[in-house]
């Protein structure tokens, strides 16, 4: 099975009150790509990511990870392959210690305790947070929480990382650390963000969403230099391209 392939075909979704969120979204992401999904507030970015991770299920159209459709019968397999990092780390960290949080996923998959120790420490080392293993998550800084939330996903050995606003609420130093961390991963990476300068540093491809529809899909340097295109979609040039 090609775990690293992500395919959306005519994906549509509306919220229970009837508000449309996604309208016939289609794309293909292949192994090793680093893809950004950008758009104004309410464009549908987070909703799309939640479909890729199987948190939401398609109302029409389909989402496919490798050879497996994202549907109720296959959710365990999808969630082993797609690691989802929430925008707010507090939504992901809930155990008494950092070690317990990172161990939660492997334990629920039936990993033995010696295997859990190895997985947890490998994940914490990868994000530079091994020294935090015994700390309560609620005593961590924002940057530390973000790193540990990524470690909780890495401990499951996913082939695909999906991240919602990975640099939100980070100070400049921790934002730069996050960029370095994202660039060291060899996973397929899909991230939603308002930070277009981050996209330039981390991604090679960008999709623009506007009112639930994809309005552009192309190479980062080309799309993010197109001022008219960005403005039509409620966006501005990245800071480094202004002036």
Quick structural overview:
With 243 residues, this protein is α/β, with parallel strands linked by helices. It has helices spanning 45-52, 75-81, 98-108, 113-126, 142-154, 172-184, 196-202, 220-223, 227-232; strands at 6-14, 20-29, 34-38, 60-65, 68-69, 82-85, 160-164, 188-192, 205-210, 213-219.
Describe the secondary structure blueprint for this structure.
Elements: E1 6-14, E2 20-29, E3 34-38, H1 45-52, E4 60-65, E5 68-69, H2 75-81, E6 82-85, H3 98-108, H4 113-126, H5 142-154, E7 160-164, H6 172-184, E8 188-192, H7 196-202, E9 205-210, E10 213-219, H8 220-223, H9 227-232
Q: Quick one: how many beta strands? A: 10
| Major beta sheet summary | 6 strands, mixed
Residues in helices, as a percent range: 25-40%
Order of helices and strands: EEEHEEHEHHHEHEHEEHH
Structural class: alpha/beta
From the structure provided, what is the oligomeric state, counting identical versus distinct chains? single chain
Unreliable segments of 5+ consecutive residues = none
Q: Separation of termini?
A: 47 Å
Strand order of the largest sheet: 6-7-8-3-9-10
Average pLDDT score: 92
Q: Tell me the β content.
A: 15-25%
Folded structure, characterized:
With 243 residues, this protein is α/β, with parallel strands linked by helices. The chain contains nine helices and ten strands. It has helices at residues 45-52, 75-81, 98-108, 113-126, 142-154, 172-184, 196-202, 220-223, 227-232, and strands spanning 6-14, 20-29, 34-38, 60-65, 68-69, 82-85, 160-164, 188-192, 205-210, 213-219. The strands form two sheets. Strands 6-7-8-3-9-10 form a six-stranded mixed sheet, sandwiched between helices. α3 crosses α4 (113-126), α3 packs parallel to α5 and α4 (113-126) packs across α5. The protein is globular. The mean pLDDT is 92.
């Amino acid at each position: 099975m090609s775990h690293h392939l992500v395919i959306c075909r005519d994906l549509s979704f509306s919220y229970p009150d009837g508000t449309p969120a996604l309208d016939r979204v289609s794309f293909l992401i292949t192994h090793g790509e680093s893809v950004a999904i950008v758009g104004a507030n309410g464009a549908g970015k987070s909703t799309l990511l939640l479909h890729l991770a199987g948190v939401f299920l398609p109302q029409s159209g389909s989402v496919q990870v490798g050879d497996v459709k994202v549907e109720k019968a296959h959710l365990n397999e999808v969630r082993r392959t797609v690691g989802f990092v929430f925008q707010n780390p507090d939504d992901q960290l809930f155990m008494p210690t950092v070690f317990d949080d990172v161990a939660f996923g492997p334990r629920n998959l039936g990993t033995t305790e010696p295997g859990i120790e190895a997985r947890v420490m490998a994940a914490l080392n990868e994000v530079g947070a091994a020294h935090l293993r015994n700390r309560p998550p609620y005593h961590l800084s924002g940057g530390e929480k973000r790193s540990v939330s990524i470690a909780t996903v890495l401990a499951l050995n996913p082939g695909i990382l999906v991240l919602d606003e990975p640099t939100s609420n980070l100070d400049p130093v921790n934002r730069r650390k996050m960029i370095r961390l994202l660039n060291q991963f060899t996973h397929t990476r899909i991230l939603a963000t308002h930070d277009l300068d981050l996209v330039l540093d981390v991604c090679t491809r960008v999709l623009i969403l506007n009112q639930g529809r994809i309005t552009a899909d192309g190479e980062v340097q080309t799309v993010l230099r197109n001022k008219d295109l960005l403005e039509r979609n409620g966006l501005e040039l990245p800071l480094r391209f202004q002036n």
